[in-house]
Write a structure and sequence with these properties.
The complex is a heterotrimer of chains A (275), B (446) and C (460). Chain A is α/β, with parallel strands linked by helices. Chain A is built from eleven helices and nine strands. Classes of the chains: A alpha/beta (275), B mainly alpha (446), C mainly alpha (460).
Amino acid sequence: MIHPPIPAKQSDSSLSKYPEHSATNPLSVHAMTVAYHQKPVLWDIDYDAPLGSLIAIVGPNGAGKTTFMKACLEIIPVASGTIEFWGAPYAKGRARIGYVPQRESVDWDFPISALEVVTMGRYGKLGWFRRVKKEDRDLAFKFLDDVGLADFASRQINQLSGGQQQRVFLARALAQEAELYFMDEPFAGVDAATERAIIEILQKLKNHGKTVICVHHDLTTVPEYFDNVMLLNTRVIAAGSVKEVFTQENLKKTYGGKLTLLDEVSEAIAKAKGS
Amino acid sequence: MSSFWHEFVSLDLPPILTALFSSLSCALIGNYLVLRRQSLMGDAISHAVLPGIVLAFLISGTRSSFAVFIGASIAGICSALLIEVIRKIGQVETGASMGVVFSIFFALGVLLMEQAAANNIDLDADCLLHGQLETIFWLPPQNVFEILRLSTLSQLPNEVFVSVAVFVFISIFIILFYKELKLFSFDEALAKTLGFNPSVLYYVFISLTAFSVVAAFKAVGSILVIAMIICPATTARLFTDKLKTQILLSMFFTIIATIAGYVCGAFMPIWLGFENSINTAGMISVISGLLLLMSVFLAPRYGILAQKISRHRLQLQVIREDILGLIYRVEETKKGITKDEIVKTLRKFSSDYFIKNAYSSLLKNGLISERNDTVILTEAGNIGAVPLLRKHRLWETYLVNRVGLNPDHVHNTAEALEHYTDQELTEKLQERVKNPETDPHGKKIP
Amino acid sequence: MNDAAQSLTDVSFQMPSLHEVIKVLTLQAGYNSALVIGGTTMLGLAAGIVGTFTLLRKRALMSDALAHCSLPGLVLAFIFSFFLNLNEKNIYVLLLGASLSGIIGVYLIDQLVRHTRVKEDAAIGVVLSVFFGAGISLLSIVQSLNTGRAGGINHFIYGQTAAMNQHDAVLTLIVTLLTLVAAILLLKEFRLVCFDSEFATVQGWNVQRIDLIMMLLVIVTTMIGLQAVGIILIIALIVIPPTAARFWSEKFDRITIISGSFGALSCYFGATLSTLFPRMPAGSVIVLTAGLFFVISFLFAPERGVFATSMRFLHLRTRISIDHFLRSIFEQIELKFGAKEDSYELSKTEVNSAAPKQFFLRKLVFILLAKNKFLTKNNNDYILTVKGFKRAYELTRNHRLWEEYLTQYGDIATSHVDYSADMVEHVLSHEIVKQIEDSLRAKGKIPRALPQSLHPLRET
């Protein structure tokens, strides 16, 4: 596939050469370990997200993909390690981060229209007590239009198809006008039209120099959609450009055979700490 | 003394028996409700029976317990059905659906009761909440030996018979359908695939709940009914993961709560010199709540205290091992280390309190000793440290070679893992890394 | 009231005149009744608004727990005042006690859920019943204190609207205003947290603080409501109006307004009824009025009411059955004569096997087929008109396109396609069909004429 022009910032070769020491890395994770109910699910994660790229997090079920994302966003606590956004802690970078959670994470029967959900993306910029203004609503509508749902703006979210619901979530993240996006399985259970629409938007974001990190489950589309990949299975198996890292051998390491010893010791730790 | 016994048998024994068997029925049902996360169903039903009772009075014109039983059962089952209907058809969340149904039913009951009052039918909603335990008594027995005579027993108050009968009925039902109920409360989808119709089972079960609630509330009041449905089962759940054990334990807690609660309510105030006793149904629910509170802290496995203690012990153990490892490493380089240096090094992993405690316990057990300022390992300490270091370095090797982590920061991970690695795991580990001589940092694996 | 002369069936009372009714409704029937009706109406408004937030935050039963847990505090405050020779009915002391023990109860529920394996429903039930049980026991102590005024506290269990005085009304007014201000200022925040609290966290909102504000509103409303409708029924004012309002709208702010109105109206009419008629305890009448709003909403609300939704469902069901009918007729014709546009005579067995089995649905399908002039009846024979044929052709084409599309693009086995095709076909617009056609044509998969069925056709 043809790579779109690289944004000016990234062409600075000294930065791209040593990404781990660069303050412009939108996300750098160092030695992160996460435990769920005392049981460690992510071991010692080191990761630096390159600026202005589409990054897929790939790995088998239970590999900790969603956990990684949630830990980065401080939704769940980390046991150890540091996470930095543009060289600063999360609280400082928060306004520049957008988030698309898994579709199942909310009640779609909630009384709210598609446009209102997208407008929520603006709430963070509004702050306490301030009411939603017309500009916000117009902007939200524009983003809804971008995902091809302008006609559905006033529909209650329950009346949208799964793919449309996913696009509403995407539009909400766009409304955050962030520079770094976390998306948890944006392609899960969507129709082909939605998949195309989403990937077009991701490309557009990338062309504007934004960074997108997606949990992704469809291996066949990784080379087509993404330019960077992080292979995850309780720890980072490999990370880097799709060309270099997305190899048969690495995939085998990621998907084939769990590291039984790590599992066993996880169990032992959970048992010791839990009771 | 004999007058005390006489009073006890005629005034206290019947209420105790009634409370006990009513509570046992509720607790049995409660085990399943709690597992199915429907414990508030008992709450809803026990409030919703009110209009049924009043209507039964108004229609039959009698206070016969049979009419009341029928009326209350119908109202209870109706409310349970309505809650389901509103939840499913109206797409209303269960909690809201319960709130809507039981409050409307209860309001209707209160209104009907006011209307009934006009007809000289004196009903009191208070009885429904507080229960009428205090009004159950038994006149016949003149002395202790007559108690067991059939003719005397047959004159026991109705409430006692009803509560015993319901308890027996529910016990038989649970024994007969133990397997089905277990499946039903554990995994409804599985029950369906195995050919049980879950909605039939649901309605049978809900009817049974209504039945036990109705049988119990008249004597003990709706509050005690709710408490007994939820508290003993919840308490028992803190002790075990087995359904059978849970049920037996819940019955045990029910017995304790009932007897202790009754004693606290009926006798304690009088022993303490007060004139009047306290509402016993309320006291029983308080005691069952206290039992739960105690279990929350003291239960052997899921109790907060047990978890605190074992975590404390674990942390001490970890620090002890860390100290041994640290000294061993220092001695490897032929240097010495002071106590202050140990504390300083380990401070980033734990508090001074733990480090000092661990240190003194090592000292006391003769694993380390102090020579002038430096701390050294004794022979026993050396023996203790070697396997630790071995685990640590094997893990480092594993993490670098097999997992592919950077040798620069495997140390902390290995440090965390070594404490949880038993003999078996160590053997597997050394097999997997093929018994190397040195670790990734070139240090010897002992 | 307890007139012994009344017979068992005689529940007669004086029917109030229209003049009286209007006087009460317009708050002109004396200071006291105006105070009670006005006060409870405000309470209903506040409870309806607060209730919307708790319902949508999925914490509908929290206020029930709160109310039940307030009893021991209430009774203790009463005993406390008694021994300190304060005025036992000092509402501030009583409500302070009630609030404190209510808050302790809710806090305990939260702690139980957080630190033990006790699930939320059980935690609510445990705390609620134990606190209320303790309250009942304490109450029996009060009754033995011989204050002669112990009855005052009993009112809190069942509520006594008539006891509302100017003081209470002012307090209610303040709480209502507070609720209104909070609802207007924080509507955005409440909506966000109710819908997606995780997203709110990521955006940097302090979700706990928003929840706390919501909880405080519930607490003050519940406490104010205790006196009017009582511990057991206050839950009704907080749960019923929003649940009823939910049937009418799909908009958060509109539901809030409708719910507030339902709450206010139930209280207004309930209190009025209770003033006009004897033996009508206000609390119960208010709840029953709210219940009436609920039943009407549940059945007849145009948006989500049972009738509206079942009509919609029936409509869809009939459409699907008609589509099925036409398609299966078409397949028979295709097999026998090829797909030539014409009208066709159909045998009775052909028609019968294609029509739905259920009696009612079958009648409906035939009526609609005749009405649309798809099918005409000629003596004993049926005739598929040209119009009917065209429709059948179009339906079959859509269906097969969809099947084809799914087998090409979706990872769905051929044997499963028919099922899902039937489900989705009915929501396919012409536009989408064209899109599928284009994409299939691009791959050279679309035949010029009708695509072949994937299943072997059987003659019936």
